[in-house]
Amino acid sequence: MNYFLTQTPVKKLILIDGNAIVHRAFHAMPPLHSPDGLLINAVYGFASMLLNLLNNEHPHYIAASFDLKGKTFRHEEYKEYKATRQAAPDGLYEQFPIIKDLLKTFKIPIYEIEGFEADDVLGTLAKQAENETDILTYIVTGDMDTLQLITEKTLVMTPHKGFKESIIYNAQKVQEKYGLSPAQIIDMKGLQGDNSDNIKGVKGIGPKTAQTLLQKYQTLENIYANLDEITGSTKDKLSNDRDSAYLSKRLATIVTDVPMALNLEDCIAHQYEQDEVLNLFQQLGFQSLVGKLTRFNNHSQEKKIQDSDTQPALF
Q1: What is the pLDDT of residues 137-158, one digit of tens each?
Q2: Would you list the domain boundaries of the chain?
Q3: Is the pTM of the predicted complex or chain greater than 0.85?
Q4: Does domain 3-174+255-303 have CATH number 3.40.50.1010?
Q5: Are the C-beta atoms of residues 150 and 126 closer than 8 Å to each other?
Q6: CA neighbor of 97 nearest in space, from 287, 280, 264
Q7: What is the CA angle 297-302-308, rounded to 5?
């Protein structure tokens, strides 16, 4: 269904990439402490982002996902996956339980499963939501890997300017930024790799060469099917690292068939108890966020009786 052409009324589903947003909040906010002395800068940044989403986007449904400790199926295939990542800064991981309590107080469900990353969970939930005729999904993240999930019914929203603004990616914006379609993001990773995840790609192939090859041949598989047409050092690099290229593409591919089911009834927004949230904010010392909470709650009473929103002018 093409929402741009039909202007079909939609209901918004917001899916929050918990780990990506928490990390961004931690580094974006100065050190803050609760009245009890706990470091809570990531909690504050996350709460501020959440209230901005609720106030500005008025979602009908909202859910979150987090990575779990332990190895995933990607580690089973490639034991060095993410092996070069630096240890988290002191005080970051201690804030995750508080953030999960915050989400629970807002009655926002958390989807997570051992053996898979949050990206896989988000991709699965977004794909299931696409089976609904009237839902448009926004994946809220700072992880550009999720651009591969973009369709007519799934968009990616990244916080900007200290969580006060957002950039929304659709297929057109991905094309403008990378010169590729969303589906080609995994082929790009197969060629150029991804240092943050220790995905090797093809040694010596950078973004520009990857883009040029994919614009001509469309996919990694088609590049290798037409390897005889490619000349010079590029051909040699591709030949030498064929196995690495295919492995890298597999590692970069977000799976969308995680064994879990999206329950939209559990994800209905605005169904929290305001007193519970106020109590939590007071415990954390978030007095500056109380006004945003009140504005959201008052407005939500109007929004939750509506069955649909119109498609925003994103396309």
Answers
A1: 999 999 999 999 999 999 999 9
A2: 3-174+255-303, 177-252
A3: yes
A4: yes
A5: no
A6: 280
A7: 115
